Amino acid sequence: MLTAIVLIDTAPDVIPEVAATLAGLAGVSEVYSVTGRADLVAIVRVTDHDRFADVIADGISKVRGVVRTETLLAFRAYSPAQLDQAFAIGLED
């Protein structure tokens, strides 16, 4: 499974409507309203790279109210247990 994190800028008066529309798109697994430079963050999960174009360029970017997107492709996922192990290397209790 391939994952992308998409930062989304929207028109300010339609954030909830855009979020609801995005959450209904195939390939979008989660949508968050956030603080910071973006209005929304969408987590996109697909089975092959070609599907990113379908979901992001042909889907998310064309939703009415979406002004701009920035896509971050995930290289590797780390679970909390893996992070604890990585930072504990060489440390004694």
From TrEMBL:
InterPro entries to which the protein is assigned, alphabetical: Dimeric_a/b-barrel (IPR011008), Tscrpt_reg_AsnC/Lrp_C (IPR019887)
Membrane-spanning intervals of the chain: none
Residues of the Transcription regulator AsnC/Lrp ligand binding domain: 6-76
Domain of life from the UniProt record: Bacteria
Coiled coil stretches, renumbered: none
SUPFAM superfamilies from the UniProt entry: Dimeric alpha+beta barrel
Pfam families registered for this protein in UniProt: AsnC_trans_reg
Name of the protein this chain belongs to: AsnC-like helix-turn-helix protein
The organism of origin for this protein: Luteimicrobium subarcticum
